[in-house]
Design brief:
This protein has 432 residues and is mainly alpha-helical. Helix 2 runs parallel beside helix 7, helix 7 runs antiparallel to helix 15 and helix 13 runs antiparallel to helix 17. The longest helix is centred in the middle third of the chain and has 45 residues.
Length: 432
């Protein structure tokens, strides 16, 4: 990981993301705790996470917009807009204002998918293809490491000062990210859509690429099915803490902090796992690890719960690094925003449904039954992905692709897109 951090442009990007990720780690869980405190409802608290994920249905449109502007200035502008979107939280006072938290959470979800789509292209632009796994691993390590202090800090700030301070911290974080990333100096041109394509075809190009590329299709299908099951845990964790451990909602922050320890380990290990198992194999391991974690939560025991969330923490960066690196390697640069956004929608769409269903079912069914079903589904999804790991072999097993001059791509990009359909310039044929 030190290799990628030696690159000045990536260090600036890393610094900016550190500020925004710190604000995010403090803010998101605290919003759910805020709703729980105002309403006393586990379901309504879990629905806060649903509000964040629901805007993922707009992903194809967001990706199309991202692909028509230079990455760095778009990323800066998106961070500035996100800071402004948090200001309504300053008006929340009592239960009657809970709707404001939901609206802000939904707008933040739209911002999140926008930032994720442009970030994927920005990393591809700043980092050589052979360092993509390391770059994604560094960012996931920091993101998960922030779970060690962020949730507890957010819960503590909320308890000591109030929710308005969470909004202030979030705004400062995103403003700082905009300033730091704005210092990056890189030459770029706005990606353009394929010649003669109509607007609907350009918007759907990301989905067509995901469906036409075998490794991406397997990854998104397997992970989408896994996330459909795993999304239930977002609402169930409040019931686990309340009904199982007999503690108040703020204790969720402790569990998320323990999960951050596992995430730190997973982030550090993820580049090595990609080198040994390939991107799809890494994604398979991440999804499968969530199975025993969920099964362990069936029995409400504090120390067993710590082990479970620790294992769940390891799973998350493995899935993210495997998926993001696969997308960046298998997608033409001009299409990367749409593919990244579409992948978020394919994964987060089912997850949003399961979070919403979980918020309803937690009041009807025993949370232990639901955790057991989640565990079995995660193991099955991980097995499906592992069976397709040969679609993206480890780097050492890859046969170097022949050079194709005059195709308009940089050497590193050319090697990764040989044999891959450039959706947006070629109409999809049968079976694609």
């Amino acid at each position: 990981m030190r290799t990628v951090l030696r690159r000045p442009e990536f260090r600036l990007l890393f610094g900016g993301l550190l500020a925004s990720m710190a604000a995010e780690s403090i803010l998101l869980l605290a919003l759910a705790i805020w709703v729980k405190d105002l309403t006393g409802s586990d379901g309504l608290a879990g629905a806060t996470i649903f509000a964040v994920i629901a805007p993922m249905t707009l992903a194809p449109l967001v990706g199309w917009l991202v692909d028509h502007y230079p990455r760095r200035p778009f990323f800066v502008a998106a961070n500035l807009v996100t800071a402004v979107l948090l200001t309504p939280l300053l008006a929340v006072r009592d239960r009657g204002d809970v709707w404001i938290i939901y609206v802000v959470a939904a707008l933040y979800g739209l911002s999140y998918i926008t930032l994720s789509a442009v970030l994927s292209g920005l990393i591809r632009q700043l980092v050589p293809v052979e360092l993509l796994a390391e770059a994604n691993g560094v960012l996931q390590t920091v993101r998960q490491g922030l779970r060690l202090i962020g949730p507890l800090a957010g819960a503590g700030i909320y308890a000591a000062v109030g929710g308005w301070m969470l909004a202030v911290i979030g705004m400062v974080g995103f403003l700082s990210a905009a300033v730091v990333v704005g210092l990056i100096r890189t030459t770029e041109t706005p990606p353009a859509g394929g010649p003669g394509l109509r607007w609907p075809a350009e918007v759907s190009a990301g989905l067509r690429h995901l469906a036409g590329e075998p490794a991406l299709r397997r990854a998104l299908l397997g992970y989408g099915l896994g996330s459909l099951a795993m999304g239930f845990s977002e609402s169930l964790i409040f019931a686990y803490v309340d009904q199982g451990l007999r503690r108040d909602a703020a204790f969720v922050g402790v569990l998320v902090t323990v999960q951050g320890i596992g995430g730190l380990v997973g982030g550090l290990l993820s580049p090595a796992v990609v080198r040994r198992a390939g991107e799809v194999g890494t994604l398979a391991a991440g999804v499968a690890f969530f199975g025993p974690a969920s099964l362990a939560l069936v029995y409400p025991n504090l120390w067993l719960g710590f082990v479970a969330v620790l294992l769940a923490g390891v799973s998350l960066p493995l899935t993210m690094v495997g998926l993001h690196t696969l997308i960046q390697r298998r997608t033409p640069p001009g299409l990367l925003g749409r593919v990244a956004a579409a992948s978020e929608a394919v994964v987060s769409g089912p997850q949003a449904l399961s979070i919403g269903a979980g918020a309803l079912l937690v009041g009807v069914l025993d949370y232990r039954v639901l955790f057991a079903l989640i565990g079995v589904a995660a193991l099955l999804s991980g097995g499906y992905l592992w069976h397709g790991r040969t679609l993206s072999p480890p780097p050492s097993a890859r046969i170097p692709a022949p050079r194709r001059p005059a195709d308009g791509l940089a050497p590193a990009d050319r090697a990764d897109t040989v044999g891959q359909p450039v959706v947006g310039t070629t109409p999809p044929g049968p079976g694609r």
